[in-house]
Amino acid sequence: MEYLKRLVFFKLAVIYLRYLIGFAFMFASLVKIQGDRFTIISVDQPVGYFFEAMYQTGLYWNFLGWGQFIAGTLLMTQRFATIGVMIFLPIMLNVFIITHAIDFGPGTPIITTLMLLATIFLLLWDYKKWIFLFQPDHLIKVDLTQTPKDHFMTDPIWAYTGITFIGITLFQRLTPYLRYDVWMILMVVIGVCAFILKIVKDRVQQRRVAPAKL
């Protein structure tokens, strides 16, 4: 894992996986928080019956929504992504088991399997922050102050982008002023612009450092 952390490709993969998973569940959570039905599938079918039963619980339906919202939001902030993925793992595992236990069709179980694997990958990426939980108390040594700062992963650009995603998603879901297709295009454009801005920023900094070394 330490080798992968030195590769820009995997750093970007982690950052945008956090955005993607966090966004997917934050968007789905708002339906539950508002007390709306998640699907219009007939209760004559197992999937429709299952979702209708959860919807009728009321408080539990809202609780699921808030759990997904909190986990998704924390993931997208990047700064608190480790806490987010630790909350998200049991939620995702639950979704994974449900989609394999009930006939959701051929595609959904594949998607939830990939999402679970992505969640596990994100958890392993931050293993230094939680691995000590599995060690005896008298053997715990936590001192990461000598670890070099990863300026790429900790760049404020990623946090600002995540907060922007959260704001736009809330605006789209809670108001009638932003069409679904426009919102999706806007999210993609912002994600691409964040990447370009980061590359340009790094190149400018490299040019400034180069003369100083000479």
Question: Could you explain how this protein is built, in words?
Answer:
The chain has 214 residues and is mainly alpha-helical. It has one domain. It is 70% helix and 0% strand. The protein has seven helices and no strands.
Compact description:
The chain has 214 residues and is mainly α. Helix content is 70%, strand content 0%.
> How many helix segments?
7
- The number of domains is 1
Query: What is the percentage of strand-forming residues?
Result: under 5%
Helix content: 55-70%
Order of helices and strands: HHHHHHH
Question: Low-confidence segments, ≥5 residues, pLDDT <50?
Answer: none
Largest sheet: none
**Strands, count:** 0
Helix-and-strand structural type: mainly alpha
Question: Can you give the mean pLDDT?
Answer: 87
Shape: globular
Cα gyration radius (Å) = 20 Å
Distance between the first and last residues' Cα: 35 Å
Helices and strands in order, then pairings?
Elements: H1 8-33, H2 46-56, H3 59-77, H4 81-101, H5 107-125, H6 156-174, H7 180-213
Helix pairs in contact: 1-3, 1-5, 1-6, 3-4, 3-6, 4-5, 6-7
For the structure shown, list the relevant keywords:
70% helix, globular, single chain, mainly alpha, 7 helices, 214 residues
